[in-house]
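Action item from last meeting closed. Structure (471 res):
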C-alpha cells in the first residue's frame, strides 16, 4: 500500500461512525449526480447533433434545388449575415463559390470530392479542432455539389454542465446534512448504549442493566451486553465467595500452625525447649507442623486450580480414557501407598483434556482413600455404557449421609463426620467442574459394600474404540 493510501486509511479509521456515514452519504449522492450528468450530457449532445444535421439537410436541399434551376455558377448566394449557417458551392472543376463576407470553411475533403464527382449522393462530416469545428453536409447538385455547414457550438453543453455542477453541489451538501441527521437519529441508541457502558466502567456497578430499546441489531447488541454484565456479576460473585470460603478454610490450619510455632519460639527463648518438650512430644509437634504445612500446600494448590476458572486452557484431544484412569491410579498409589486400589478398566475413547480428567479421577480416589478401611481396597472401574464412558469409584467406608448428598460437590463443603480428616473440601468440587466442562455428569450413591459410590458419566467419542485392558 502506498504512503498516501496508508494515511487515508488511518484517517478513515480514526473517524467516528457518524462521520463515516455522513461521508458515505455525500459520496453516494455525488457519484449519483456525476453519473446522471454524464448520461444527460450524452443524451443532450446526441439530440443537439441530430437536430443540427436535420437542419443542414433541409437547408442543403433548398440550396441544391436553387442551384439546379439557376446553375451552379449562376445561383444567387446572399451576403453572409454575420452568423448562422455557412454555404459553399463546389463547381465540377473543383472551384468554389461562397457568399460575400462569409468566413472561410475548411478545404473540401477527399470524401466530399467524391460527392462532387458523383461517386456518392451526400456526406455528413464533422471537422473538430482545438480552435474551431464545423459540421458540414455535402449534397450532390447538378454537375457539382453544395455544402451547408454550421459551426460547432458547445455552449449549451457547457451551460448544462454548469447547471448540473451547481445542482450537484447543492445535492451533496443536502445529502451530507441528511446523512448527518440520519446517522444521529440511527446511532442515538448506540450513543445511549455507550454512555451506559461508560457509566458501568466508571462506577463498577454491574447491577445496572442497560434498558432494552430499539430493534434488530441494536436490540441484539444490548441483550448481548446485558448477558455479558450478568456473566461478570456471576464471576464477581463467584470470586467473592471463593475469597470468603478460602479465608474461612485457611483460618483453622493457619491458627494451629501459628500456635505451634509460637509455642516452639517461646520455649526456645526461655531455654526450656528440651525440658518442656520431651523427645516424643517434640516429634509429635513437628509431625503436626508438617501435616499442617502439607494441608496448606494442598489447599493452596486446589485454590489455584479453582481460581483458573475454566479448564478449557488445555487443548482437547481424542484419548483412551483407560490410559487416563491407569495414570491416576498410579499417582494415587505413589502418594498414599497404604491405600490399596483395585482397578478394572475397559478401553473407552472420549474427546477430552487428559490432565484435567486425570486430576478429577485422582481426586475421586483420594476422597475414597480417606474413608476406606485398611483391609478394604478402593475399587476403580471404567466401562462403556451405551454412548457414555462410566467411571465408578467406591469404598467400604461408612458412606455419605442422605443429608450431605446434595452438597457433596459444593466447594469447601465437608460433612460433620469429615471435619477431623485432612482435606479442604475442594477435591470433589474440582471433579464437578471438570466433568461439567466435558459435558458429563457426576453423581453419588451408596456402594454395595456400604460405603460411597462416586460415578462419572462422560460422552464417548462418536468413533469410540474399545479394547480390554488390565490394571
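Sequence:
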Amino acid at each position: 500500500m502506498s504512503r498516501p493510501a496508508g494515511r487515508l486509511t488511518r484517517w478513515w479509521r480514526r473517524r467516528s461512525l457518524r462521520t463515516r456515514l455522513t461521508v458515505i452519504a455525500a459520496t453516494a449522492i455525488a457519484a449519483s449526480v456525476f453519473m446522471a450528468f454524464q448520461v444527460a450530457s450524452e443524451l443532450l449532445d446526441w439530440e443537439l447533433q441530430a437536430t443540427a444535421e436535420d437542419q443542414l439537410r433541409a437547408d442543403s436541399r433548398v440550396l441544391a434545388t436553387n442551384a439546379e434551376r439557376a446553375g451552379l455558377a449562376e445561383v444567387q448566394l446572399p451576403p453572409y449575415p454575420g452568423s448562422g449557417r455557412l454555404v459553399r458551392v463546389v463547381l465540377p472543376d473543383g472551384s468554389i463559390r461562397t457568399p460575400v463576407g462569409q468566413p472561410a470553411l475548411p478545404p473540401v475533403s477527399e470524401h466530399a470530392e467524391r460527392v462532387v464527382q458523383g461517386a456518392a449522393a451526400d456526406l455528413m462530416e464533422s471537422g473538430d479542432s482545438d480552435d474551431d469545428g464545423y459540421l458540414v453536409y455535402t449534397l450532390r447538385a447538378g454537375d457539382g455539389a453544395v455544402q451547408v455547414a454550421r459551426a460547432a457550438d458547445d455552449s449549451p453543453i457547457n451551460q448544462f454542465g454548469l447547471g448540473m455542477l451547481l445542482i450537484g453541489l447543492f445535492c451533496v451538501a443536502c445529502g451530507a446534512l441528511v446523512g448527518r441527521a440520519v446517522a444521529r437519529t440511527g446511532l442515538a441508541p448506540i450513543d445511549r448504549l455507550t454512555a451506559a457502558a461508560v457509566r458501568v466502567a466508571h462506577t463498577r456497578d454491574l447491577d445496572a442493566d442497560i434498558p432494552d430499546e430499539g430493534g434488530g441489531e441494536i436490540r441484539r447488541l444490548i441483550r448481548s451486553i446485558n448477558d455479558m454484565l450478568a456473566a461478570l456479576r456471576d464471576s464477581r460473585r463467584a470470586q467473592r465467595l471463593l475469597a470468603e470460603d478460602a479465608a474461612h478454610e485457611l483460618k483453622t490450619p493457619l491458627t494451629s500452625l501459628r500456635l505451634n510455632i509460637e509455642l516452639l519460639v517461646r520455649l526456645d527463648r526461655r531455654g526450656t525447649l528440651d525440658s518442656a518438650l520431651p523427645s516424643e512430644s517434640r516429634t509429635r509437634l513437628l509431625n503436626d507442623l508438617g501435616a499442617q504445612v502439607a494441608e496448606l500446600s494442598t489447599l493452596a494448590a486446589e485454590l489455584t486450580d479453582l481460581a483458573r476458572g475454566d479448564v478449557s486452557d488445555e487443548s482437547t484431544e481424542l484419548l483412551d480414557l483407560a490410559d487416563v484412569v491407569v495414570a491416576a491410579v498410579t499417582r494415587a498409589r505413589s502418594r498414599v501407598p497404604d491405600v490399596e486400589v483395585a482397578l478394572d478398566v475397559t478401553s473407552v475413547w472420549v474427546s477430552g483434556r487428559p490432565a484435567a480428567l486425570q486430576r478429577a479421577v485422582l481426586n475421586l480416589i483420594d476422597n475414597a482413600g480417606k474413608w476406606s478401611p485398611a483391609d478394604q481396597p478402593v475399587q476403580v472401574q471404567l466401562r462403556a455404557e451405551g454412548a457414555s464412558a462410566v467411571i465408578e469409584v467406591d469404598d467400604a467406608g461408612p458412606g455419605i449421609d442422605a443429608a450431605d448428598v446434595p452438597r457433596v460437590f459444593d466447594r469447601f463443603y465437608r460433612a460433620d463426620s469429615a471435619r477431623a480428616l485432612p482435606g479442604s473440601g475442594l477435591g470433589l468440587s474440582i471433579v464437578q467442574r471438570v466433568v461439567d466442562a466435558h459435558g458429563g455428569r457426576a453423581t453419588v450413591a451408596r456402594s454395595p459394600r456400604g460405603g460411597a459410590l462416586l460415578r462419572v458419566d462422560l460422552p464417548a467419542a462418536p468413533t469410540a474404540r474399545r479394547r480390554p485392558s488390565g490394571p
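Note appended to the action item: The chain has eleven helices and 13 strands.
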